[in-house]
Prior knowledge:
Rossmann fold; three-stranded antiparallel beta sheet; 11 strands
Amino acid sequence: MPLPQRGGPLSGVRVLAFTKVWAGPYTGKYLAHLGAEVIKVESMTNLDEMRAYGGVDINAAPYFQSINQEVLSVQVNMKTQEGLELVKKMVAESDVVIDNIRQGAMARSGLDYESLKTIKPDIIALSLKMWGTEGPLAYQTGYAPCFAALAGLNYLVGHEGEVPRGMNIRYGDSTAGAYAALAIVAALHHRESTGEGQFIDLSAVEAMTSLIGDSLVSWSVTGEVPEADGNFHSEMCPHGAYPCADGEWISIAVDGNSEWAALCSELGIEPAQGHATLAGRQADRHVIDAWIAEKTSTRDASELGTALRALGVPAFRSQSSIDLCSDDLMWSRGGYRMVTDHRNGSRPIIGPPWRMTPDEAQIERGAPLLGEHNEYVYGELLGLSPGDIADLIERKIID
């Protein structure tokens, strides 16, 4: 039975995904949010770890559900030759193949780029690894904290004068996954223009390195190695997060002397004469931060932000994840979408950060059950009969 068309700029593009954990599935999610048909290849004997992470039900694990919306699932035992032959038939019906599995695994299965081209000459293949597919560390498996540490980002994150702290979020995975989706869109454009497929070798470490900006070359210009410096900004002061009443925080960024004067007026600060310039404020920034923190500590963060913005001072309450879940603007803009799955009914997910007119893909379906789309893939795409499919299940080729 054919699946309903969801629209979107990548409608009609089929992606075969050999992906696990976060970075690879993040790529698939973005492509699916653009309208591509993304088919995740998996099996009971080779599960995505996220199907078990944070829960005991492989079809209801929260981390898996959070990142695999609008993705299809097909089961196949790739440890069998017959299973591999079925996968190659899936490749022949696809436009893109993506993987972030262990280095060498695709080649051992006869699914490296050169082999894929013999199946479909214009195929686009993307391999996402910590260090790419070449070099002395290409074999090394890594996770998001490794990407951030090796890329130089962790060294820059922390309070001034303290040891670097890094971040307890998956910047490395989501950044590499988003870059991979962008590269695939570019490769699809190239193929449309030239008829040629492409192989994309994406390094998660290099993706993260691109985020540290001019810090990467700062030493060669200034002779100083950049270190973690909290919220310091070379062109703004004060610039930071300050405590408010009830455990809340407000972020304030002062750009210029007039904004500094407005901030002092609202908070009741008597500015020193030397603070009338940026250089003067920066030289005394720790004292200034202490003054501001004392004044903001009894104020309501939202009300103070509104008052400061009315005076032309950029200031906003620092929102927690709970705050974001109830943010009216996020809901009204479609930042959250409601999807339906088999276990939880209708539930919200984080939607794509773009709004497209007129052809935005529908996002209505949650993460798939394991093998939920076996009948579609084997029957509709590969043309197998119900009896053939039942036989494959009986012999655990569909596993």
